[in-house]
Here is the input.
Amino acid sequence: MISTHTEPNRPKWEEQISPTMSWQELAADLSAPSSHQLVGLTPAEQVVVTYLRQGLSNKEIATALGKAEATVKNQVSSCLAKLGVSTRMRLIALLR
Here is the structure.
């Protein structure tokens, strides 16, 4: 379901993921970077991490998933704690 079609002025997440997919479908459809790195994360957190790896902001992730920005912020914080890293950039580096 990941699209390779791109159009100018479209957000990055729209270019890569179908807008009709729920976060549950995304969790099942998107390939995780490495399953051992995501042990302990909920399916929703795994989807958020997938978007983080693409360089999206909390606001962009919230828009893509139809969630509140505060919810995404809490999920990112939870991922940081569960994976034992102190910053968003270190989390991204860990996952790459």
Observations:
- Helices lie at 12-16, 23-29, 43-53, 58-65, 69-83, 88-95.
- Residues 42-96 form a domain with the Arc Repressor Mutant, subunit A fold (CATH 1.10.10.10).
- The chain has six helices and no strands.
